Amino acid sequence: MPRSATRRTEGADIDPRDTDLEGFVGYNLKRAYMIVQADFRATLGEGGLSPRVFSALSVCVSHPHITQSELARLIGIERSGLVAIVDELEEKRFLRRVPVPNDRRVQALVPTDAGRAAHGEAVAAIRAHEDRLFADMTGEEKQTLLILLRKIRAREASR
Amino acid sequence: MPRSATRRTEGADIDPRDTDLEGFVGYNLKRAYMIVQADFRATLGEGGLSPRVFSALSVCVSHPHITQSELARLIGIERSGLVAIVDELEEKRFLRRVPVPNDRRVQALVPTDAGRAAHGEAVAAIRAHEDRLFADMTGEEKQTLLILLRKIRAREASR
DNA sequence: TATTGTTATACTCTATAACTATA
DNA sequence: TATAGTTATAGAGTATAACAATA
């Protein structure tokens, strides 16, 4: 059956592959990202950490006493956008803003015990979520994907 | 110089690789996506098509007389969200909402000559943008990336 | 009853600009 | 003059729920 016969208002047999859209990395990147972040949120649940809040907590755990400006740069957002994130983490008692003696402008971010525990649990949940979501990919494929995504990210460093 | 000596409020020598964050596909996906979509917008400029508007136009050009519901499903957004997109494309005279004889509920989307022309120009600009952005990747790497991203997208079909 | 297009609404994420207090 | 944190604000993008018209 020629496609032209069923093209109008039919749609059921439309092959998404024949749009030039499907050939673009950007489009596929967005669709994949939407799926992963939706599943991330579903995994961590209603009161759970959002992707960006988890990212911030994760860096604070790895780099205690990091400043907000450094953290913002590291996770790729503006300083102003970080305020609400740190507010949320501080309200949850997952970290504290600690004054720094030598420079009274900055406030170092220090994870609490509860923060480290919550981080550990989140990491476990997210590992399970990614294992589930990428179950049809081999370990090598996942590694290749990481390498290629980091290659795109490397473009950002030069800005 | 051991890292512990420079850990506090220094930050200049923090290696982003040593956060567990960097090991997650989701995080790398997001960072890469942010870079690509920002460059997309910069490429198409102020009055230019946004990613989602381009996507909609692209599918309309490939599948003239597609309905809004079909289009929404194809590009992975809600019907309600498509209204503003189609409004914008119709205001720009890039497509028209055309009544369908057999079913007066639906309105088929038909690209205009101007719409097809604008689409062609956008495709050329986006190809150049991706060629530039992924200049350090081989053709094979780009192909691999597309395949892996589509593998993630395949998860969505089962919902 | 179900579907199409639509509106109203809210939420998340991000960015810009301007402020303050420090340096 | 410059920087850290902050506030105010606006703009994308998305989703949910409800509605009228039509099937």
Question: Your description of this structure?
Answer:
- The structure is a homodimer of 159-residue chains.
- Chain A has one domain: Winged helix-like DNA-binding domain superfamily/Winged helix DNA-binding domain (Arc Repressor Mutant, subunit A), CATH 1.10.10.10.
- The first copy, chain A, has helices at residues 25-44, 51-62, 68-75, 79-91, 113-133, 139-157; strands at 66-67, 95-99, 107-111.
- In chain A, a hairpin with a 7-residue loop joins β2 (95-99) and β3.
- A three-stranded antiparallel beta sheet of chain A has the order 1-3-2.
- Chain A contains six helices and three strands; from the N terminus they run ααβααββαα.
- By secondary structure, chain A is mainly alpha-helical.
- Helices cover 58% and strands 8% of the residues of chain A.
- Chains A and B meet through α1, α2, β1, α3 and α5 of A and α1, α2, β1, α3 and α5 of B.
- Chain A binds a DNA duplex (23 and 23 nucleotides) through α4.
